[in-house]
Write a structure and sequence with these properties.
Elements: H1 15-35, H2 39-42
C-alpha cells in the first residue's frame, strides 16, 4: 500500500513545497487542539 498525500494541490513544484505546507497544517492543527476549551471550560452542560 502506498502513502497518500496530506494535501493534493497539483503544484508540481517538488516535495519541498508540499512538506512546507504540510508542516504548517500540522502546526496549526496542533495549536487548535492544544488551545481548545473543554466542554466544562466553555460552560456547555452535559448532554446539551
Amino acid at each position: 500500500e502506498c502513502l497518500r498525500p496530506i494535501v493534493s494541490l497539483d503544484m508540481r513544484l517538488g516535495e519541498g513545497t508540499g512538506a512546507a505546507i504540510a508542516m504548517q497544517i500540522m502546526e496549526d492543527a496542533l495549536a487548535i487542539y492544544n488551545e481548545m476549551a473543554t466542554f466544562e471550560q466553555a460552560g456547555i452542560a452535559p448532554g446539551a
